Amino acid sequence: MLLNIRKKILYVIVSLIFFGLVLRFSHLQIYEQSRYTQESEKNRIRDVVIQPSRGLILDRNGRVIVDNVPSYSVFCVPVEMDYSWTLLSKILGLSESQLQEKIDKNSYGQFARVKLKRQISFEELSKIEEQRLDLPGISYDIEPRRYYPSEVKAPHIFGYLGEADNMLLKSMDRSIYHPGDLVGKTGLEKVYDLQLRGIPGHRFVEVDALGREVNRGQGDLERIAAVPGQNLHLTLDGRLQLFLEEQFSGISGGAVVVDCSNGEILAMVSKPDYDLSLFTKPLTHDLWKTLSEDTTKPLFDRMVQSLYPPGSTFKLAVAAAALEQGKGYDDMTFTCDGAYRYGNRMFDCWKEEGHGTLDLMGAIEQSCNVYFYQLGLKLGIDILSEYARKFRFGLPTQIDLMEESAGFVPDRDYLNKTYGFGNWTQGLVLNLAVGQGDLLVTPLQMAALAMIIANKGIYFNFHLMRYLEEPVSRVQSWGQVEPTRIDGISESTFDKLRQGMFKVVNGENGTGRACRLPNIQIAGKTGTAQNPHGDDHAWFIGFAPYESPEIAFSVFIENGGGGGAVAAPLARLLIEEYYHLEISRRQ
Q1: What is the rounded CA–CA span in Å between residue 226 and residue 503?
Q2: DSSP letters spanning 217-273
Q3: d(Cα 47, Cα 61) in Å, to the nearest integer?
Q4: Is the Cβ–Cβ distance between 379 and 321 less than 8 Å?
Q5: Spatial separation of the C-alpha atoms in residues 180 and 178, rounded to whole Å
C-alpha cells in the first residue's frame, strides 16, 4: 500500500516536471521565437560601420583646400582571432605584440571591431583578400584620408587628424566617438570635428562560424547610408594666404589680415610651419620626436599662442589714455635728447641724437621713447593697465582655434605680489609705457588693436568659419558675429590716434614710410620690441585705406630687428597684393 502511494507521488512529480519542461519549451519556441531568432542572427550577420566622407574645407571663393581620398584600413574582431596572429603579423609588418597592444588600447568589447592598421598598401590588401579563409575575424574597409589639392599650407589653421584612443575618449561623447575613429587633433579639424565628421552608416555582412565574411550584402536587412560631414567654408582668401606664405618663407614670425567690417580672417600665416601631409598617414615616433624637438618650433602657432612684448605699437594705447585723461596731455610737449634719466639710470630712445621737442602727434609719428617715458610717468601704472585692458589686451580674441593665449597686462597688484609691496620702482612704469617689461601680447591681439582704432571703437571677434554647408541639400548656416563697442574712449580720441597712425606712414619723419603706396592711403604703427634672448622683434600694425578702412593687419618678425625697416615693407607687399586681388575679383 505504502509502495503504491510512493509510486503515485513519483509519477505526479515526474509528470509535473515534464509538463513544466513542455511549457518552457513552448514559451521559448513560440512566444520568444523572434527574440532568439534575432540573437541567432547576430551570430550570423555582422553590423559593419560605414565611415562617412569627412566634410571638405574651402576658402571664401569656393576653392577646395582640404579634400579626401579613399584609403583602406584593416580591422579585427578579437574573440574570433584564433590562429590568424602569425599570418596577419607577417602581412601587415607588425609584430604580434604590436597587434595585441593595438587591441588592448582600442578595444571596447570582444565582438566590436578594432582598427589594426590604417592606409594599408595595395600589396597588403591583396594578400588579405587572397588568404581570407585563413584570417578569421579579419576584415578591411574604406576610410577617407585627408588630401590637400591646393598649394596653401596653413597647417596651424587647418590642423590634422589622428586616431582616438581610450585615453582621448575619456573627454569625448562615447555615443558619437569610438576607439580608432579619426578625429581632429588640432586646428579647425578639432574645433569643427563634430560638423565635419558626418554620421556613420551601416552595412550587414554574413559570417561563418569562424567569423569569416561569406556574403557582403544581406537583402533582408536594410543598408543605412552614411551621411557626409558638412563642408566648412572659410573666411580665408586662398590666394592671399598663399602669397603671405611665400613672402614669409625662411622667416620666423607671421602676419594676419582681417576684415574691419566683421572680424573675418582673410589670411593668417605662422612660420616656421610643417607639412600637413605628414599627418595624413600614421605618424611614426621618430618623426613626431623630430617635429616636437625642432628648435624652430614649427608646431607652435606664433600668431595665436606665442606671447611677445608689443614694443612701440603699445604707445597707441598710452596715447589714448593721455587723451582721455585731459589735463592738456594732447598739447603737452617733451624734449628728447636721445635718453631720459630716471634716478641713476638712463632710459634710451631708439634715436641716439634725439628727436628734439615733440607734441603727442609728433611722438606717435616718430615713435619717440623719451616722450612716452615721461607721459607714462604722469599717467601711472593704474591708468596704463586700465587702458591696456580697454583695448582688450589680456583677453583672447575668441578666434575659432584651440589654445589661444590671452596675453598679460601687469598692474599694481601684480607688481606688489611679484616685487613686494611698495618695493618696485617707477622704472617698471617707464618700460610699460613703451610696450616693454611684463606686458605680453599675441600678434593676433595687435591686429585687434589696429581694427579697433580703424573702426573708431568697434570690435568684432575674429573668426575663420564663414559658414557650414550641408553637402547634399546645400543648406548653409552662417555664423553670427555681433559688434562690441569699446567703452570709455571717445570718438575724438580715436580720430587723433588715426591721425597719428596716418603720419607714421605718410609723415615726413614717419617711422613707417617703407609701407607707403602711391594710390592707397595707409595708417600704421611701427614697433621694435627688445628681446633678452636675442635680436629685437619687429612689429608693424595698421589699416587701409585710411578714410574708409577695409582691412586691418599685424605683421610680426621674430628677431627681425626694426619694425620700420623690416616689418613695414612686408606690410606694404601684403596690402598691395590684397588690393590687386580685390580689383581682379571685382572685374
Answers
A1: 59
A2: --TTS--BPPBPPPEEEES--HHHHHHHHHHTTT-SEEEEEEETTT-BEEEEEEES-
A3: 41
A4: yes
A5: 6
Q: Within a 10 A sphere around the Cβ of 245, how many other Cβ atoms?
A: 20
Q: What is the 3-state secondary structure (H, E, C) of 456-503?
A: CCEECCCECEEEEECCCCCCEEECCCCCEECCCCCHHHHHHHHHHHHH
Provide Rg for the chain, Cα atoms.
33
Lowest mean pLDDT among 30-34, 71-75, 173-177, 292-296: 30-34
Contacts of residue 439, defined as CB under 8 A and 6 or more positions apart, other chains included, come to 309, 310, 314, 388, 393, 408, 409, 410, 432
Longest alpha-carbon distance in the chain: 137
Joined together, the cell numbers standing for residue 385 give 593697465
Average pLDDT, the chain: 88
Q: Compute the distance between CA of residue 451 and CA of residue 258 in angstroms, rounded to an integer.
A: 8
- As a whole number of angstroms, the distance between CA 374 and CA 315 comes to 12
State the pairing for strand pair 231-234/57-58: parallel
* 192: number of Cβ within 10 Å: 21
- Other beta carbons within 10 Å of 344: 5
- Contact call for residues 268 and 155 (beta carbons, < 8 A): no
- Smallest CA-to-CA distance from 429 within 345, 551, 308 is with 345
Q: What is the pTM of this model?
A: 0.86
Lowest mean pLDDT among 74-83, 372-381, 422-431: 74-83
Contacts of 89 (CB under 8 A, 6+ apart): 95, 96, 98, 99
Output b/e per residue, 531-542; b: 16+ Cβ within 10 A: eeeeebbbbbbb
Q: Per the omega criterion (within 30 degrees of 0), is the bond before 272 cis?
A: yes
Grid cell listed for 273: 610651419
Strands (E), 349-464: 356-358, 458-459
CA dist list (Å): 359 to 284, 327, 368 = 60, 14, 10
Residue 167 near residue 443, CB atoms below 8 Å: no
Can you list the alpha helix ranges (DSSP code H) found in 154-205? 155-158, 166-169, 187-191, 193-197
Q: Is the model more confident about 315 or about 20?
A: 315
Q: What is the pLDDT of residue 429?
A: 95
210 has a pLDDT exceeding 60: no
- What is the mean pLDDT of the segment spanning 8-19? 69
The three grid cell numbers given for residue 563, joined into one nine-digit string = 619694425
Cα(353)–Cα(360) distance, rounded to whole angstroms?
19
For the chain, how many residues are written? Answer: 587
Q: How far is CA 564 from the centre of its chain?
A: 30
